[in-house]
Amino acid sequence: MNTMEEYLNQLKAAFAEEDIEYFNELKEDLLEQLAICLEEGQTEAEVVARLAPPEEIAADFYADLSLDAAINAKTSVVPREEIQDVFIQTQKKRMQKFIKTVFKVLRPLFLLGLLAVFGFFLIYVVKELIEERNLAGIPTILCLFLLAIILQVIKSWFSQKERLINGVAIGLSGLGVALLLFFSVTGQLMYKGRQYYKEINLASSNHAAFSFDSDADVEITTVEVSSTEKPSLMVKGRFKESDIKKIENGSYDNKVDLTLDEENIFDSFTRTGRSEVIFFIPKGTILDDFHLGLSQGDLRLLDIQTKNFDLDLISGDVYAKNIIADEGNVDSDYGDVIIEESAMNLNVKSTSGKTVITGMLGDLTIEGNKGLSILKFLRSDKVVLNNHSGRMILEDSETKKLTATATDGQVIVKRTKGDLSMVNENGKIVSEENQGRLDLKNGSGPTIAIQESKVNATVFSQSGFIKWLQDPSQTINVIASTGTGELRNDFSDVSNDGKYKIDVKSKTGDVKILEKVE
């Protein structure tokens, strides 16, 4: 049979006259399927050749009728085992038919997805060959396997060449397996770049600047050299060929500006490893800019003078000492930041790492999420501490104004001079032996103040516990009140000398003003 008309004539002859309605429904489905296949470029003969024999379709129909009659009959004359067998076979045929129908519908979408993935890996391979002069192992192997699968999906459209297509698909799969073994044995599955060393020298120390960004793991160090030398940068490690070109042309106008190992989708199978960068800065040189932007790395930065000091680090540790700058910015997500004996107006953002700043001169702003901040020996006009759920400790410092806010973290300030304002929602506030104006506000967390000297203070809590310990030798007038909590004030009888006054209020929490006992 080469035409649908012949096929339908034989199919109609296989049906009884009383079942002709079912034949008409089946006829409409077959003609609709033929129209779709013709639009896809198939011939009528190819479509008819793939159809089940007319006798088999009719036999399935009458098997279903027999099964229904046997199940619904009031008196069964058919053995139970035969009914079950007919039912099982019928369900199998229906499932096979359903699977074929689903595959026909989804095959174009599946093929489109395969072609898209194949196209991506093919572009990956070509791009790697052109830019890195490297045959990308994994993308090449995946291209071969994907092409073999694509051939298997479309081979039914070329029924006369199925053997040839099967042979080509097997050959591509075999080549993919061979390359997989070869790249695995030689260690070339991942592109590792090549070992490279370069020292970049600037023309002079006047208006020199360094900017270095990398998404790879980098170890960075600064070294102070003789004032007679010129600023320079040493880069060492494994690098891609495209990055080596950047390094070769990385300096202009007395500035080094490098961006290496940028993360992109075409570096998914690149592993260059850790690199090393050393900055050589002549003594007394004032840089126009010093910028580092890293995804991960360890930084040891010493003896830098610059107008702008900028660090942007996702993970890794920073140790900086003797940094003198007009403005400083440090952004660290997960690493520890330690800055010692430096002078600059500094902004620090930290997500979860530890921040330690000691011996610093200049204004300071810290934005913390859930890390730990330890600040000691600061000399600042203004200190701003914003903390979400971490812990901030300020000790032995001097500032004209301190503003510390937190959501549910801890704010601890000890032995610090200046006007101090601490606000918390749910966490703890601790003030110990401070000098200057105190303004403490808390939502539901505890507030604790310990004082030997006299201060002017305002303490307010919504529902948290307030405890103030005062040296009895430095008696001071304390006005304390609470709405529904317990109240104790050991200094309620002290007269107001007009100079110092402490006002403590809580809406519902306990308030205790106690004499400090050694």
UniProtKB/TrEMBL annotation:
The chain crosses the membrane at residues 105-126, 138-158, 170-191. The keyword Amino-acid biosynthesis does not apply. Residues 216-370 form the DUF4097 domain. This is DUF4097 domain-containing protein. It holds the Pfam family DUF4097. Keywords: Membrane, Transmembrane, Transmembrane helix. Coiled coil: none annotated. The keyword Membrane applies. It comes from Enterococcus rotai.
